Amino acid sequence: MIAYLDPQQNQTPNPPSVAGDGTGTGTGTSNGTETEPSITTASSDFGGIIHAVPAAVIHPKSITDVASAIRLAGTRHLSVAARGNGHSISGQSLSDGGLVLNMRSLDAKVELVSLPDGKYCADVSGGALWEEVLEWCVKNYNMAPLSWTDYLGLTVGGTLSNGGVSGQAFRHGPQVANVVQMEVVTGDGECHVCSDADSSDLFYALLGGFGQFGIITRAHIPLQPAPRMVRWIRVVYDKFEEYTADAEWLVTRTGPDAFDYVEGFVFVNSSDPVNGWPSVPFPSGPSFDAGLIPVGSGPVLYCLEVVVHYNHQRNDKVDEKVDDMLRPLNYIRGLEFIVDVSYVDFLSRVKHVEKEARANGSWESAHPWLNLFIASSDILDFDRHVFKHILKHGIGGPMLVYPMLRRKWDRRMSVALPESVIFYLVALLRFPRSYPEGPRIDEVLAQNHEIVNCCRSNGYDFKLYLPHYETESDWAEHFGDGWSRFVRRKADYDPMAILAPGQKIFSRAAPLRLL
Ligand code: FAD
Questions:
Q1: Core-most of 40, 117, 347, 445, by most CB within 10 Å?
Q2: Ranges for the FAD-binding PCMH-type domain (predicted)?
Q3: In terms of DSSP bridges, do strands 56-59 and 300-310 run parallel, antiparallel, or are they unpaired?
């Protein structure tokens, strides 16, 4: 294990078994992740809004190193944050004055594991990026996990601690429903292997558990044969009722009539290059013919995005299949955009966005993002108040809105969700230009606040996804009926409240108690 201590910090602990040259210099890599983040890097996250300086950044190589760091923290009254790729928004991966474990430094070996039912899993590091898992599985075995995030520069342990959603979630469930075994170190420094069959309470506690109960060092992710190609389709709606009716119909289809991916987004009904019509067409295809938009359409429009996997085999019949699947949909005829790309290129699509954002500086600036899950019964009202009113000029980035199914999320997991059979992910992925070219961050945060207040005051069945709260009562409200179980699990697995302090759920010093 290598520990880089900040020479300017006088409260540095004595780290266990220090090795390596200990220069403490952050080393950037071409995929935008750092293998050895410095104290400075580990003091902030992708959100760029909250800053907290750790006492030390530890670079564990193995589960034993993780356990040693947690035990050390136990004796020194320190907290420990696992840092995946630091892509949290509100400081969740930070540890103010405590230890940050750089999960990217764990042994990255991947192994294929065969299951008793003849299927396969990838045994991967909790610090592996999903893009690394994809590359390894496709290159070596032509296989791939079933459920993804849109962006793959996130770690396995990071998304399993939150949820992990994308357009496959309606069909295969979120990433937290696509793991069969985890290796973990709990807050008492003990190592465990857990699954649905063994230590199942710990297994389900970890899934969406915000890193509160243990640090995931390895995970078994089920695989399926990887398709070679995808047909990627975008169609446009002017009426939200028609968009949601079609989207909900699509996510309840099963078997050969189902798409392999269903997502969608809201865009502004104008020629604005970032928020408007140009954000819909694929780069090499036809442009957006605004003349086809019905007269009297509102300030925003909706784009449904669907995908069919295929392999270029005669029995794929992809043209017929896509025609049959698009025919019943009520989108604006003529505003359909279709492109064929390889499966890997489709899954890596946000990489291009990252490249552009890095080039124009908006990747490094602050990201006051807001993610919500909202019941289908409330989504039309939400559209009226929020998309058509508060956000009618756009947000300088994608505004995702697409449905998923409650039954794909096991209730034993820690994740808090709306009760509705169908609920929507609403993701406001803001890439504001720095002030004064862009808005002031406090104004943007105030707008996020206004949106959450709108959900509260209208009594919507909703939850924040990737939430950030400051008070115990807010967390209790977030978890609702699940709060007492969450508190009990904390007492069982991390009784000294050492882990994931940046989530601000439990305080290292405060005694645990049931409300
Ligand atoms: P970090 O931000 O480093 O950590 C997040 C939390 O998990 C922290 O509390 C940390 O302590 C804990 N943690 C990290 N690793 C472990 C571990 N091994 N064991 C236990 N706890 C751990 N989410 C989606 O669901 N779908 C998307 O499509 C999606 N796209 C995104 C695109 C971008 C550009 C960004 C910035 C975020 C996106 N996210 C998405 C959100 C993402 O799921 C969260 O940021 C999540 O935190 C994972 O990021 P990370 O691996 O960098 O974890």
A1: 347
A2: 50-226
A3: unpaired
Range with lowest mean pLDDT among 22-26, 157-161, 390-394? 22-26
CB-CB contact of 238 with 246 (8 Å): no
pLDDT in tens, 88-117: 999 999 999 999 999 999 998 999 999 888
pLDDT for the residue numbered 19: 27
Distance CA 122, CA 114 (A): 9
Torsion sign (Cα): 135, 138, 140, 144: positive
Taking only Cα atoms into account, the Rg of the chain, rounded to an integer number of angstroms, comes to 23
Q: Which of 34, 65, 87, 183 is catalytic?
A: 87
**pTM for this prediction:** 0.93
Instruction: Give the CA distances from residue 260 to residues 314, 396, 473, in Å, rounded to whole numbers and listed in that order.
Output: 19, 29, 40
Q: In 10 A of CB 59, how many CB atoms?
A: 25
DSSP 8-state class, residue 386: I
Instruction: Output the CA–CA distances (angstroms, integers) from residue 189 to 97, 157, 182, in the order listed.
Output: 20, 17, 16
Phi, psi of 451 (to 5 degrees): -70, -45
Structure tokens at 68: 């040693």
Residue type, 12: T
Residue 313, pLDDT score:
76
pLDDT band at residue 241 under the 50/70/90 scheme: very high
User: Is 6 known to be catalytic?
Assistant: no
Higher pLDDT, 7 or 180: 180
Task: Say how far apart CA 165 and CA 11 lie, in whole Å.
Answer: 39
Q: Is 340 a catalytic residue?
A: no
Encoding tokens for residue 95? Answer: 């540890």
Cα angle: 420, vertex 403, 384; to 5 degrees: 85
Residue 291 C-alpha to ligand 1 middle, in angstroms?
A: 41
Query: Which residue CA neighbors atom 30 of ligand 1 most closely?
Result: 151
Per-residue pLDDT at 4: 44
Alpha carbon 38 to chain centroid distance?
Answer: 24
Q: Which atom of ligand 1 is nearest to the CA of 150?
A: 28
Q: Helix (H) and strand (E) counts for the chain? A: 13, 18
Provide the pLDDT for residue 308: 96
- Read off the pLDDT of residues 460-515 as tens digits, 9 standing for 90 and up: 999 999 999 999 999 999 999 999 999 999 999 999 999 999 999 999 854 444 44
Closest CA to 196 of 211, 181, 212, 186: 181
CA distance 367 to 373: 19
Dist CA 452 CA 389 (whole Å): 14
Contact 230, 309 (CB under 8 A): yes
User: Terminal CA-to-CA distance of the chain, rounded, Å?
Assistant: 39
Q: Is a pLDDT exceeding 90 seen at residue 40? A: yes
**H-type helices in 147-259, by residue range?**
156-160, 169-172, 200-206, 240-251
Q: Is residue 289 classed as helix, strand or coil in its secondary structure? A: coil
